[in-house]
Amino acid sequence: MLSVSQLSIDYGSNRVVSDLNFTLGESEILMLVGPTGCGKSTILQALAGLLPISEGEIKVAKWTATPKHTVAPEKRSVGMVFQDFALFPHLTVEQNVCFKLKDTSPADHWLKLLGLDAFRHKKPATLSGGQKQRVALARTLAHQPDFVLLDEPLSNLDAALKDMLRWDIRNALKEAGVPAIWVTHDQEEALSVGDRVGVLKGGKIQQIDTPEQCFSTPNNRFVARFLGEASFIKGTLNNGQALTDIGNVPANGIDCDTGEVEVLLRPDDVLLVQSSIGNNGEVIWVRFEGGSRLCAVKLACETVVTSRVSHEVVVHPGDKVHVSLSTSHPLAAFKS
Predict the structure, then answer these.
(1) What is the pLDDT of residues 85-99, one digit of tens each?
(2) CA–CA dist 233, 255 (Å, integer)
(3) Within a 10 A sphere around the Cβ of 228, how many other Cβ atoms?
(4) How do residues 51-71 score in pLDDT, each as one tens digit?
(5) Would the pTM of this model clear 0.90, i.e. be above it?
(6) What domains sit in the chain, N to C, each tagged with a CATH number?
């Protein structure tokens, strides 16, 4: 288990991370997301012992680090996986994974599990990006760390590799049974892979919760916008129902119980229909996504909402359409 309590980190007189709190159980994966410069990588460096902490504590079963009681990086038993792989170019795959290991049996286990057995005697320069990252992960897990830190491990890979490798990494971490903190800029990656997601802004956690909760019931508008396409429509909240210009829907007040609100709409909550009558919106732009199209529509009330429709629905900017709300789950509503 990894426990972080009231953790704050300063760069000189500038506080870059404030009051960070979370606890991770065995094999639990926390995805950290947020805009550039929000403190994600700083947190990883502090957990690894590469940066001093100003307040709070980092605790695992074997050690506790505080501002007055530092623990050197080599004493922390922390595994790190970087975006640039950090492999020794002059060593083979096997030598990289076994580096400084007295017992090489864990290395054999991870080489086989991660599909690297046939590449044992290859040098990193001959491997693909995905294979290099598997080697880096095998090396990390072979050393049996107390927890693992992953700093954007997929950012240097092409899109086709990312989807497959993210699940290989997740499965390996679960097999190892160690807590992991995974920093990413990819919201889809964060929502699909993590057991929990932590959203950072300006060095402060805005929300740590399950992916489903962060996406459907965000703590604030920042979290709502950061974790996917988000639009808001004015309405009135009363008895768990939000009344809006394009329909009434079940809603949960995030910071209020009744009154004037702005309802969070995801593209899948908005139904767009081509019709010759009853039109209440005009298409502004359309983005083809392969299996679907994402459309922005300006409503009669001047609000702009986004709707995701099948790729078979062909609409163009300037088309008049009918827009309504379609959801079976309560939508998040914020005080207007």
Answers:
(1) 889 999 999 999 999
(2) 16
(3) 15
(4) 999 999 999 999 999 999 999
(5) yes
(6) 2-77+145-221 (3.40.50.300), 229-335 (2.40.50.140)
